[in-house]
Design a protein that fits this description.
By secondary structure, this protein is an alpha+beta fold. The protein contains two helices and ten strands, in the order ααββββββββββ. The strands form two sheets. The chain has a six-stranded antiparallel sheet with strand order 1-10-9-4-3-2, with no helix packed on it. A four-stranded antiparallel sheet has the order 5-6-7-8, with no helix packed on it. The chain is elongated, with a radius of gyration of 28 Å. It starts with a helix and ends with a strand.
Length: 148
Amino acid sequence: MSDFFSRLSRRSFLDYLLGGGLAALAGAVLFPVLKYIMPPAIPQAVQNDVVAGKVGELAPNSGKVFRFGNKPGLLVRTPAGDYRAFSAVCTHLQCTVQYRDDFKHIWCACHNGHFDLTGRNIAGPPPRPLEEYRVEIRGEDVFAIRQS
């Protein structure tokens, strides 16, 4: 070991010191940037049902967006007065869909995707139907329940 230090010149020692300092500086700059770019892993609680609205809150031929976990859901009251619930995430590019009372169906504003009141894609680029939730009315609350 002492042989190593005896052969080490002052110039090469300074080269090692400067190289180590530059490597530490690069690490100090890149680590926060990488931590900012990569999203943290957030565990999601499994939620199978949620209160989507209140009975009588929606008029027939209307809809509203509600939260189902960390994603939006869509509660629709059909022109006939039935309640339907769907995931409000478009199957094309994950945009939020909405109920259009003039179309009488679900519409995605991002790329003009259309879904009927069963969640089936009927026009536009969405490749798959919307995920449909089962609807139950318990007292004054309208529940949307994920179907397994």
